[in-house]
């Protein structure tokens, strides 16, 4: 027995076990010891995830894949495990200060530990049954955090709608597992990969993949079931950080995990690209009209989940994993620093902003798009990244170009102000550098670009870019569009009514926002 064959399974399984041990087993447990115990075990779990990642990178492709029946290691899962435990530990430290004086904190600690333990189990899932059970456990533990303030109607409404979406997703996952199991003869994921290597997938596996894709759409709060993610702002701020920076991103990881199955199912890939792109477009437009910092962040998460799902449908799994990691770190910082953002926004409002010039609203959009497209194409050509086809260079250019011309910077007379174009150029350069470095890292994923859907994604991004340019050039002429956008195009209102008819609430819900 080699040291790796013993240490790797131990370090891989330890985080989930430690988080289970961190759960207070008595409802009336003392608050300071409960937080102290959680922080100590969380630090050990974080060290264990880092060790597991290092061992897998050192072992290379020869690392043992199975640690227990139904549980296995993947390099992508190891990266996400480090991210999840890091964010969980930081959020726990923040929560212990944020909730000082609040009653029933041990219940919060138990639910937080339960979420982290379930997520670690999901990251190790190597069998359909383990995947379904772990994802259901994540949702069940999260419900206790969402309803921590049980007297807030919007929090209860959000939890109710999420519970319904989770149950529908469970049904779809069970259907996907049943179809795949009947075709392969086993619920093991490695057995499924071997079956796919043997020949073309049958209609049964195609249907299984479509059910899996729809289940991920429900779990990641894409349109039209996105409303609960907006209304969950009634939960404590660290719960919002945990949800938006961690739990909601699990759908992207599951899609990356099932990449071999997605590559063989064009229908499922089109579903992901279509729903993901529509969600990104609509949520991106709605976000521009919102004033509340936390609500803007929530709509931003909906848009980012749409982009991530679209990337998986396009077969750009490396970029999707980098997007997952980057979005998690950014959104955790954004929510935990929301109070500082509010103060900064008030100061910016008092100082005023610069009125956009004709150059910034007419010439800049065209020039910056062409410039960034050329820069991305040059970098892609100079670095061996065959997974970046030409159309993805255009998508990145359309996504990043507004950073150079949107008037989001404070007045130039304000202390420490930076010209908008310089700040935007720095952000674009940082994004390009991060993408290049990320593709050079051993992430354990393999890309499979889908050119037919890529052209659709490019057209959709061009439409979003055109809307941004029109909003910049003619803001007063788009009054009706602004009203529809501020209302979220009324999608959630219809979805909420349908949800309450399908599963009536046991309490009187507030009117949806």
Describe this structure in words.
- The chain has 513 residues and is mainly α.
- It folds into three domains: 1-124, Four Helix Bundle (Hemerythrin (Met), subunit A) (Up-down Bundle); 151-351 and 478-513, no CATH class; 354-473, no CATH class.
- It is 73% helix and 1% strand.
- It has a two-stranded antiparallel ribbon.
- The longest helix is centred in the N-terminal third of the chain and has 32 residues, at 153-184.
Major pleated sheet? 2 strands, antiparallel
Task: Give the helix level as a range of percent.
Answer: over 70%
| Average of per-residue pLDDT values | 81
String of helices and strands? HHEEHHHHHHHHHHHHHHHHHHHH
Which value, in Å, is the CA radius of gyration? 23 Å
| Backbone structural class | mainly alpha
In whole angstroms, how far apart are the ends?
59 Å
Shape: globular
* Annotation field: number of helices: 22
The total beta strand count reads 2
Strand content: under 5%
What number of domains?
Answer: 3
Low-confidence stretches: 354-362, 408-419, 509-513
Spatial ordering of strands, largest sheet: 1-2
Briefly summarize what is shown:
The chain is mainly α. The protein has a two-stranded antiparallel sheet.
Primary descriptors:
22 helices; 73% helix; 1% strand; disordered C terminus; Four Helix Bundle (Hemerythrin (Met), subunit A); globular; 513 residues; mainly alpha
How is this fold's topology laid out?
Blueprint: H1 3-21, H2 31-59, E1 66-68, E2 71-72, H3 75-98, H4 105-124, H5 128-146, H6 153-184, H7 189-198, H8 203-219, H9 227-231, H10 237-245, H11 250-257, H12 259-263, H13 266-287, H14 293-313, H15 317-336, H16 338-351, H17 358-382, H18 390-400, H19 420-440, H20 451-473, H21 479-486, H22 491-502
Antiparallel strand pairs: 1-2
Helix pairs in contact: 1-2, 1-4, 2-3, 2-4, 3-4, 3-10, 3-15, 4-5, 5-6, 6-8, 8-11, 8-13, 10-15, 11-14, 13-14, 13-20, 14-15, 17-18, 17-20, 18-20
């Amino acid at each position: 027995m080699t040291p790796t064959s013993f240490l790797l399974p131990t370090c891989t399984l330890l985080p989930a076990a430690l988080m289970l041990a961190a759960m207070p087993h008595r409802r009336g447990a003392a608050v300071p010891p409960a937080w102290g115990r959680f922080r100590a075990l969380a630090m050990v779990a974080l060290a264990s995830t880092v060790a597991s990642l290092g061992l897998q990178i050192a072992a290379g492709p020869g690392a043992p894949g199975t640690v227990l029946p139904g549980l296995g290691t993947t390099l992508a899962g190891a990266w996400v495990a480090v991210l999840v435990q890091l964010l969980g530990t930081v959020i726990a430290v923040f929560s212990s200060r944020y909730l000082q004086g609040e009653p029933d904190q041990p219940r919060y600690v138990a639910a937080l530990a339960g979420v982290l333990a379930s997520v670690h189990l999901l990251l190790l899932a190597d069998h359909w049954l383990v995947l379904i059970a772990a994802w259901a456990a994540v949702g069940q533990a999260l419900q206790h955090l969402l309803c921590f303030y049980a007297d807030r109607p919007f929090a209860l409404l959000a939890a109710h709608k999420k519970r319904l979406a989770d149950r529908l997703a469970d049904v779809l996952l069970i259907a996907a597992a049943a179809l795949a199991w009947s075709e392969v003869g086993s619920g093991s994921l490695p057995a499924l990969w071997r079956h796919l290597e043997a020949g073309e997938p049958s209609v049964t596996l195609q249907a299984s993949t479509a059910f899996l894709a729809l289940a991920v759409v429900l779990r990641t709060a894409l349109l039209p079931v996105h409303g609960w993610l907006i209304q969950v702002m009634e939960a404590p701020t660290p719960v919002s950080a945990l949800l938006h920076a961690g739990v909601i991103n699990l759908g992207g990881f599951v899609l990356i995990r099932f990449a071999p199955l997605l590559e063989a199912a064009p229908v499922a890939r089109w579903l992901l690209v279509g729903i993901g792109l529509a969600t990104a477009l609509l949520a991106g437009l709605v976000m521009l009209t919102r004033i509340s910092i936390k609500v803007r962040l929530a709509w931003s998460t909906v848009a980012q989940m749409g982009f991530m799902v679209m990337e998986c449908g396009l077969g750009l799994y490396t970029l999707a994993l980098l997007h997952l990691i980057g979005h998690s770190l950014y959104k955790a910082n954004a929510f935990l620093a929301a109070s500082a953002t509010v103060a900064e926004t008030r100061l910016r409002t008092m100082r005023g902003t610069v009125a956009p010039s004709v150059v910034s609203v007419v010439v800049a959009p065209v020039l910056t798009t062409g410039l960034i497209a050329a820069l991305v194409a040059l970098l892609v050509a100079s670095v061996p990244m065959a997974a970046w086809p030409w159309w993805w260079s255009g998508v990145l250019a359309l996504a990043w170009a507004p950073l150079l011309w949107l008037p989001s910077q404070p007045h130039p007379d304000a202390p420490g102000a930076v010209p908008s174009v310089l700040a935007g150029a720095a952000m674009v350069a940082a994004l390009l550098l991060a993408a290049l470095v990320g593709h050079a890292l051993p992430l354990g994923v393999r890309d499979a670009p889908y050119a037919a859907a890529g052209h659709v994604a490019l057209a959709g991004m061009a439409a979003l870019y055109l809307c941004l340019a029109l909003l910049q050039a003619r803001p007063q002429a788009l009054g009706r569009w602004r009203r529809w956008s501020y209302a979220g195009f009324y999608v959630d209102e219809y979805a909420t009514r349908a949800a309450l008819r399908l599963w009536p609430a046991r309490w009187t819900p507030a009117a949806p926002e």
